[in-house]
Write a structure and sequence with these properties.
Layout (H helix, E strand, L loop, with lengths): L2 H5 L11 H12 L3 E4 L5 E4 L7 E3 L8 H11 L5
Antiparallel strand pairs: 1-2, 2-3
């Protein structure tokens, strides 16, 4: 579990209006990642090992956005 998440057990994950992007954030949150909303309404997802941050847009810009973000999350340690 990410250290920020371990320090605050009452924090809830950020919700996104797009169902596909929200599902990616929910998967990361379920695996102990720290997710927080950025100033531009994106969500920053940090893995438990703090390897690197993966930004998730609130609305996808193309049909490949979900696949690209899923790949980035997996490269940072998200399990299938």
């Amino acid at each position: 579990m990410h250290p920020k998440r371990a320090a605050d057990h009452h924090t809830r994950r950020p919700k996104l209006p797009n169902k596909e992007m929200d599902e990616l954030v929910a998967r990361a949150w379920a695996q102990g990642w720290w997710c927080e909303r950025a100033g531009n309404q994106h969500v920053k997802c940090y893995p438990p090992n703090d390897l690197r941050m993966v930004p998730i847009p609130s609305t996808p810009s193309s049909s490949r956005t979900r696949a690209n973000k899923l790949s980035a999350l997996k490269r940072s340690g998200l399990k299938a």
